[in-house]
Description:
The protein is mainly alpha-helical.
Amino acid sequence: MSGRPAERRAFSLGWWLRDSSGRLVVAQWPNPALWVWIAALLLTWTGALAPHNVALAGVGRGALIVWALDELVRGVTPLRRLLGAVVLTLQLAGFA
C-alpha cells in the first residue's frame, strides 16, 4: 500500500464506519422506509394477509428502494452509502 493518505483512509475500517464528525456508527434505529419493509415482510411470512401477498411484496420492494436511495444519498458513513447502492442495484435487477 502506498503512503498516499486517500488510499490509507479507504483501506481503514474506521473510515468505513465513522460519520463526518468522527463518531463510530455501527447501527442505527431503522428509518420509516425500513419499518415499512419489515412490516410487509412479516405480514407476508405470517400469511396474515395471504390474498394480498403480491401487493405486500410490491410495497416491501418499493420501501426497500426508497430506503436504499436514502442511504445512497444521505448515508452517514461510506459503508451505509455502499450498502444503499448494493441494495438498490439488487432491487432494480429484480425487475429485469
